[in-house]
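Two records follow; treat each independently.
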Amino acid sequence: MARASKREQIAQAALEQFHLRGFHATGINDITAAAGAPKGSFYNHFSSKEESALEALDRYGAGLRFDILTAPGRSPLERLRAHFDFLRRPVVDSGFSQGCLVGNFAAEVGDHNEVMRAAVRRGFDQWAALIAQVLTEAREAGEVSAGLDADDAARFILSAWEGTLLVARADKSSVPFDSFFHMVFGVVLH
């Protein structure tokens, strides 16, 4: 197996540090120390902490398993539930210490950095569009009400998910997840 390039090591370390510490609390030294790289090597691959954070967002998004939403073999609502169940596991496994990097960046830097805000917005828009696609399929399959507005419901579900992550982390409990799954799949989409 080929050894990861120094850029790859730094980019992966940046993702992990931003997710663990947040944008403001993560310094270049934290990233390079986690990557086992000299500080100067960071600037060989990234022009700024912001640039590495933007790549971290892309990498994080790639790990959200959006393919679960489109995989054949399950009904639309089963795929949607499986997607959120997949996302719940790492939060619980981390002891409720890590939420959604996109949501974390939205709360932390969205008001202060237009480039980061725009990237976060694009991420949420793409995610909501995929959820809306699944909800449209569910409506066409008769799994949800024929009057369900898939776009509005997708934005609501995504917002409810992000809120659930915050409360779960504050409570250090999976009870908010139980409420999310009950309300979304047992009430809203029933």
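The next record belongs to a different protein.
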Amino acid sequence: MNDMGHNRGFTLIEIAVVMLVIVIVLGIVSVNLEPDRESAVRDEAKRLVLLLRTAQEEAILQGKMLAVAFEAQGYSFQVLDDKNEFQPLPQDDVLRPRPLPQGIEISSVDIEGAPETGTPRLLLLPTGELPPFTITFERGEIRWQVQGLPTGKITAQVAPLLPGKA
């Protein structure tokens, strides 16, 4: 004879508990795998700080004027050639053109003494000096700024709230 008591399956409660545990574990994993919205903007601002410092040192070491041209979706490093025209840096792995990740844009570029028209260009002098500047990265309401001082100091920080926004 076959005893039905030994072949019993899982109860609905046991299955529900296992499903709940799986959902909780997947939720924790997905939260840890997906970076928060602010970290991408912060990382871009900090990357620009490091690249600007590297370009600044390169300008000093080479004794040449370098520049960074900014557009809404990225930036590129340039060098002043013998004809006094800016050209892209030749085959540089570090100071190559940098597109921004999807959803992040450069919302404003304020460089003291730069012309109001055309592509904004930050000049990096061989002396290490910089014009005061502020570059703002934005993703929705999240904003980070990269600021430079005439002394050559470059920093990244959370941008202040715009007037009228809480």
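Discussion point: Residues 120 and 166 are 30 Å apart (CA to CA). How would you locate this feature using only the token line?
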